[in-house]
């Protein structure tokens, strides 16, 4: 797990950037997302965030 202070510090470094960023922390989720239980809820959140920021998902194989 990454300590909260480290996560917030990394996020703040983007403050003056033109990059579109957001900070969302998921309690009880490990660093190895693809191996952790609950990965689907995190992936769903990312898809919603991307859509809200004008990025459309591309279907696998498409």
Automatic annotation (TrEMBL):
It comes from the Bacteria. This is Alpha/beta hydrolase. It comes from Kitasatospora cathayae.
